[in-house]
UniProtKB/TrEMBL annotation, chains A, B:
Its EC number is 6.3.2.5. Pfam families: DFP. Transmembrane segments: none annotated. Residues 2-225 form the DNA/pantothenate metabolism flavoprotein C-terminal domain. It comes from Streptococcus criceti HS-6. This is Phosphopantothenate--cysteine ligase. GO terms for molecular function: phosphopantothenate--cysteine ligase activity. It comes from the Bacteria. InterPro entries: CoaB-like_sf (IPR035929), CoaB_strep (IPR011848), DNA/pantothenate-metab_flavo_C (IPR007085). Coiled coil: none annotated. The keyword Transit peptide does not apply. Keywords: Ligase. GO terms for biological process: coenzyme A biosynthetic process.
């Protein structure tokens, strides 16, 4: 099979030296990639410069992206030519519009006017004691996948922080339906550390538990293969 | 000699999954560290999880920091027990105070009231189309070094983006005087790529040019040794 995997976390530039970054090591995406490669599948891994990556090997194609715009541009043609997308990348929700100091905000009659501005300087001045950064929503990449290729099989991820299990499952099932995914890996940051990574494979009616990244990778692999 | 080196870039958390990050690979700090180690000096390298690091070896102590607060807490006792600080780390200028949506900003009578708030949720909601992030200045770590230890020798760094050479030198000399540094490595991001790293060792009266990270490391080493 031709498997498309995303891993790592995107970064949205504030200026040439600062970014807003979503944290993700890339470790889980690396393990999933290696498992499919070991079993003779072709994998295209879309990841970031900072993420941990598998070694170069036959069957593996690496694509490096930085922000949501480059992810979208890279992913669209790939989604059309692969059978499965395992979308483990932590994608930025917001991207910077304009950064200014408190004085400009206080002087503004209408805040909406500031949203039409953008920073011309390559490195924003660090003179002011307080800065205000306006951000806008990025496109939801996972919601575009089935529009690009209605027949691709989609495995989604949902990371929440410190919520009851019922809420985690409910949010995962919302994503499952809205994005027409086959299943969603639902996890809570408070249950992830160096020794464990608690996650649930959530579909319409079941929630299968995994305890480690290796176990998550194995269960994803088995589900993808079983339904082939 | 006991040499203290900082490398990499700090990250300031917005919430449990997002940060504002200053980009820095850690490559130059690694080269400087290796050069001092090869010549029999003791090095303490204060760096970040994401930065490139030298291999574990005799004479090297590694300290991992994340944000400006952890950098400050880690650096203060080390500055008091080392003879030289080579401060190549890209340190965040600002740290998040409070993130909210446009509606709360528009409803606020006095923006200053919002600066007293903080986010209680572990992952800030991504429902709103536009978000507003308030940031405050972090303490200038380089300005504290001589207060912590008036006899430590200080090598500073100044990175600007796309400015005339005269402005780069002038800003570097301001930093040299204000922070009582021995010299400042002044560089412009537009002159840094995979093949070259143009930088100037700026002191009161001279600007010595280097073309690569290896050459910068060598020139720093020679200057530190020469004045010992």
């Amino acid at each position: 099979m031709k498997i498309l995997i995303t891993s790592g976390g995107t970064s949205e530039k504030i200026d040439q030296v600062r970014s807003i970054t979503n944290h993700a090591s890339g470790n889980l995406g690396k393990m999933i990639t290696e498992l499919f490669l070991q079993n003779g599948h072709q994998v295209t891994l879309v990841t970031t410069k900072a993420a941990v990556k598998p070694q170069k090997q036959d069957g593996l194609t690496l694509k490096i992206v930085s922000d949501v715009a480059s992810l979208q541009a890279t992913l669209e043609p790939l989604v059309k030519t692969h059978q499965v997308l395992i979308h483990s990348m932590a994608v930025s929700d917001y991207t910077p519009i304009y950064m200014t100091d408190l004085a400009e905000l206080q002087a503004a009659r209408d805040v909406n006017q500031l949203l039409k501005k953008s920073n011309q300087e390559a490195k924003i001045s660090s003179a002011a004691d307080t800065q205000v950064l306006f951000l806008k929503k990025t496109p939801k990449i996972i919601s575009l996948v089935k529009k690009w290729n209605p027949t691709i099989r989609l495995v989604g991820f949902k990371l929440l922080v410190d919520v009851p299990k019922e809420e985690l499952f409910s949010v995962a099932r919302d994503s499952l339906k809205r994005n027409q995914a086959e299943f969603i890996i639902a996890n809570d940051l408070t249950n992830i550390n160096d020794r464990q990574h608690i996650a649930y494979m959530v579909d319409e009616s079941t929630e299968e538990l995994a305890h480690t990244k290796a176990e998550i990778a194995q269960k994803i692999y088995e589900r993808v293969i079983a339904h082939d």
